[in-house]
Amino acid sequence: MELGAFSISLSVKDLDASRAFYEALGFSVTGGDAAQNWLVLRNANTVVGLFKGMFEGNWLTFNPGWDQQAKPLPGFTDIRQLQAQLDASGVPLSTRADHDGNGPAHVMLSDPDGNVILIDQHVPRPSP
Fold first, then answer.
1. pTM higher than 0.85, yes or no?
2. β-strands 5-12, 46-52: how paired?
3. Quick check: 6 and 68 in contact, CB under 8 A?
4. DSSP H helices in the chain
5. In CA terms, which of 12, 59, 60, 122 is 20 to 30 Å from 53?
């Protein structure tokens, strides 16, 4: 199962302090909006999202249709196909994508320990 680009989404208490900490580790801001309380930082192929007040806990995030630099891929497994594979495997989803949709969509699930996994496709379904 190809889930796409991986990042970790961290729920932070102080966006500025978290940004400074990760910058000290060699990360740099490559996206987001501090005025909206979220930033995306990169260090080579490692991606960390910082989110203040948007959700509880930390999430594992996968982005079908993107490479690790958030650039669209010419071919990939669409979120609706991934959802069908998860359904066939008996994996329960807490949020589902519209099976008939063609645009961006997401699904959410939790692992056995309650860690949230977001599979978040930002690009349209690939052409056949």
1. yes
2. parallel
3. yes
4. 15-24, 79-88
5. 122
